[in-house]
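Final report, closing paragraph on structural work. Over the funding period we assembled a curated collection of sequence-structure pairs, and we close with a single example.
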Amino acid sequence: MKNSQTLRLTQIFLIGLILPIIGLACRISIPDNDPVLFTPPALTVPTMAVPSLADISIPQIVQDEQSLLITLYKRVNPAVVNITIYGTPQNDLIALGQGSGFVYDANGNIITNAHVVHGAEQIEVGFWDGTIRQAKLVGEDLNSDLAIVKVENLPADVQALPLGNIDEVQVGQTVVAIGNPFGLDGTLTRGIVSAIGRTIPALTPFSIPKAIQTDAPINPGNSGGPLLNLQGEVIGVNAQIETNGDSPANSGVGFAIPVSILQRVVPELIANGSYNWAWLGVRGSNLSPLTAQAMNLPVEKGAYIAEVITDGPAAKAGLQGSDRTDTINGRVIPIGGDIITAINGVQINSFDDLLIFIALETSPDEEVTLTVFRNGKVQEIPLTLEARPGSLQTEAAP
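Its predicted structure, as stored:
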């Protein structure tokens, strides 16, 4: 009996000792009157709720852009076409290539790249709804890599795309490209304007100025398709990609022919089938500090004339190219050429400035006045521009 009482007292003591410890660990309050009769609450382990995708809130700015892109695509895509060219390299008419284009006006004129349709025997245009039309080549300009093809009877609800303003294009703005990369119709890609004012090669010895650089993915088949701002306006025609020669696929650097060139060239292609570019007839580079030092020039910026093309407008006006060299800091520097610092009073800071002015601000047979540094003196030289020749024996621009 004694042992039984001792055991019971021991159990009561142990229970009384354990309960305060549990209460402390669980942050609960234990009453003082009868700890033995107290029953602690059951211990529970909290569970973490996993939200469904529908419960996740998308930031408003993302929602807005997503809605904008969806709406833009629905509105613009019907005007973007797939162009397939056919030829007979071995007496059988076969598909030779594929590219993109977009509707320019209600008459069925479609803008694309000259390199997409050049040399085609037949041209076929496919629309977003599956409609296929035969097209004819209206005109092409290899200097700007632009061409116009025309179809009769545009499909219903297909409207021309509006053209934007090159002066409003800014580095960093969002742009989209729509086209047919690798033949995949109606593909939209998104990116930004990476740079403006690039100079890219044409299909001739000349260059295309003021090109737009973008990281919006552009691949083979995108050529001739539109580069658009978020208002759905065309700001360029996708034309080239930088591949470093390793692969024909996009590496994040693409180029579009700027809308400012479209606005000059396309109306002439529709009206006359061709476009005549003004030509100065020189080859050169930016005026470098070493050249300025070697020639003891009072100016630091300008277009340095390295070569004057024989029988060209510059040669007829008496412009001079390099005639000797000097060595500065171990580097051989061509010297003796004229430095153009202005045209018609407009400042020229680089050779690109010279190219852009001649290409976009002048026409053949127009007379301009060049401000030139020669032998330490400033001269005003009048010059009559001519049309670019069909070929040159040496690489030249502008």
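The chain is about 20% helix and 35% strand. Confidence is low (pLDDT under 50) at residues 1-41, 393-397. We thank the funder for supporting this effort.
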